[in-house]
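Hi D.,

Good news: the full-assembly prediction came through. Inputs first.
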Amino acid sequence: MTTRYVGAPVLRVEDPAFLRGRAAFIDDIAPPRCLHAAFLRSPHAHARIVRIDTAAAAALPGVHAVLTGEDFCDELPFTTTIATRPECKTGTRRLLPLDKARHVGDPIAVVVADSRYVAEDALDLIVVEWQLLPVVTDPEAALLAGAPLIHEELGSNDFAHITFTAGDPDGVFARAPRTFSKRFHFGRTHAAPLEGRGVVADWDATTGKATVWTSTQMPHLVRGMLAGQFGMPETSLRVICPAVGGGFGLKVQLFVEEAIVPLLSRRLGRPVKWIEDRSEALGASGHSKEVVMDIDLATDDEGRFLALRGRYVGDGGAYLAHPWTSLIDPLCAASFLPSFYDVQDLAYEVRTPFTNKCPSVAYRGVGWTPGQAAREILIDEAARALDIDPVELRLRNAVPDGIPYRSATGASYDGGSFQGAIRRALELVDYDGLRERQATLRAEGRYLGIGVSPFVEQGGWAARIAAVNGFPGFAYLDSASVSMEPDGTVTVAGGFQSNGQGHETTMAQVVADALQVPFESVRVLQGDTDTVPYATGSYGSRTAVVAGGALLRASGDVRAKLLRLGAHLLEASPDDVELVDGLIRVAGTPSRSVTIKQAAAAAYWGPRPDDLDPALSATRSYDPPETFSNACVVAVVEVDARTGQVAIERLLVVEDCGTIVNPLIVDGQVSGAIAQAVGAVLLEGLPYDEHGQFRAATLADFLFPKTTDLPSVEVDHLETPSPVTEGGFKGMGEGGLIGGPSALVNAIADALVPLGAGASVVRTPLRPCDILELIDAARAAV
Amino acid sequence: MSDQDTALHRVTLTVNGTSRTLDIEPRTLLVHALRNELSLTGTKIGCDTSQCGACTVLIDGRSFKSCTVLAVQADGTSVTTIEGVGSGRELAAVQEAFKQHHGLQCGYCTPGMVLATVELLNQNANPDEAAIRHGLAGNVCRCTGYSGIVDSVKAAAAAGVGK
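Then the structure:
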């Protein structure tokens, strides 16, 4: 088969609608007679609700309802657990709390009014009498006996305690010539898509059917969870996902607001809209990646890794992310403790306590990000202690390229370019030259730092990858359909849900090649559970692998029928015809051919074989085997020792995601994820004070990376197609934020070595004030 | 709220070349007037506090963050929103540059980014990379890492957008 589109930098078909302002996002959905909701949120981190007086709010002209937990007490709570992990407790969450608030931003009451302006006026008139409770915001403190209980019914704050051992790590550590340890606290981050969450619901009491528009990455899962919540058939609930202004994993949760807004519509008999404002987004949607880690590494005298141990305490926040739970960070971190280093003796321990903070949810790279940071900074410290170049140390321990390998935690790598990507990155940055320049600059009192962070990235989250990450025993059903219309154009439909990745383009590329039709003749439908086949959504670097695979299978079925139709028209045997460049032709006799258009028309109107089911449509699914991308990030920074400012000189990524569907889009994904890494390390803090007060409620406090905060990211590709997945796709959406932070952290630590502060880098973020503190402490210690 | 606060005010402004008259509460933000009263939903809201730039529009040719402008303050002005960029079926050159150089992913920052680019190039038709980055520092994109946006602006300048 000739490949024409897969691998080419095809321009996105999505773009004109966005560029003209014509794309409809959730706040652009405006059904007639729509009312507007606003939530009253707790100003306290932990406080009993003694009394709520809603009378004045309800009396305000234009207000239709003011509801509190009492009004929802007949509704099912969210019930969240990992059923296949007996180490987990089961968390429940009422839609609105009856008893107490558990974090600043916890929704307490909701107002529905003619406009958002009036709804917010009414919020100011609600009076809540609070009784303050003791607060715990530190995850390790939350595990101590006597800590304030976030959920009394669970008896402790310890949601899950998971341990794992492979081989004999303790024995190896006892005998090892060298051992190294590092405690690292990866700070809270926020996916913070530019568009926050939002829900519009229209519940028709006469038919019992409801339509819910929501800004999500998983329309069908939302439908299933809400239908269960409301006790209605899935066929009575339509979930429509309009254009999504960024998700990055945040929108892979079901939020209580998504259940409350439809109930408001049912109650009032009118459509209701709720659009999150930025303060709600920052303090009450979901935070991510805060994990306190203790990592131990045993080596021989030549730096060969012998064993690893890791202890991971995730900060779960006040409620469990539904349905993934707070294990999505620390358990994923632990599951990739060995990365692609050849270590067969290891152990890990994972805990994820509740605290009086915003719930912890998925964000691009989930726990792989903090896990990578802790391991890789320890490796750099070990390299300094062993007096081995840090990159050389990694190369000595990396799994060889191109061969299958099973990690000690049970991941089956399908062959990558682990060493090749490192070597290519070194060549592109002129690593030896950089080290020389670093030495020269140091002599001048300037502090250049180099951080090299190679990593392995799971691709295509589905049953097997989930199991590898510690979520075993769940099947995934991700289907997609391919239909050829009578004129030979093609309709693709699937429950994948683009939130900026360009699936309308990439999925069309895959199908256009498989059917040998023009890219322009393929349209892609998504985002409406009434019109597209079931799938679990777009998250976990999965769409190229999972949806791409399902579409290759479906295209194969349609292609087989086209060949039979073509052979019938050509009066040839189906075994003797081939599909090339849009033509079905007799192999060896190219002059005897029909167009795909002719074959498609024949399916609908004849002539066609009597024994052929002519439906030119196929729906197939794909639950792929394990597949893994890999990459290497290099960060070059200069630290100004007087101001603590970090200037980023270069950010380079060599990535290998197997078969590349669209290099333009891959580069964009890498670059965007690296920018988020810059934010996580240098800018973005989500601080809570000792009272659990949230200190980053606006974008003046939580700083997004701006144009001036980073250079253009340099991206280079290696291409090692997966031998096990359909199409050889591996998936790559998250990697920049897996490997990026540790490259930056290591570059900063490297810069600080001559100042005596290299090993004192123990947490993120590393803002100028944090770096000055490290430098001052090191000077004071001299 | 007192009656005076909610009494409707008449505002007349030219939006994308057409004169429009609105009777609105004085507290109405320009972005809400554009989106809710005039159905010009291309202008987005990202932060409510003028940090992100998603709501950028041009007022009398200069870029403003319409989430922190009251509609009454715009009385008598000429406002350009993303719906006023380009004409008929064609993308304007600045929009075409963003398409050609993958200057957008989710598209939410895009209308504001395009209008900020128009103003940047009107002020400086041939900006170097530093000037581009400085000029767009008030507009946040969470998806692209800005490489594609910077390339798009360079291409728009080369296409003569600011001339």
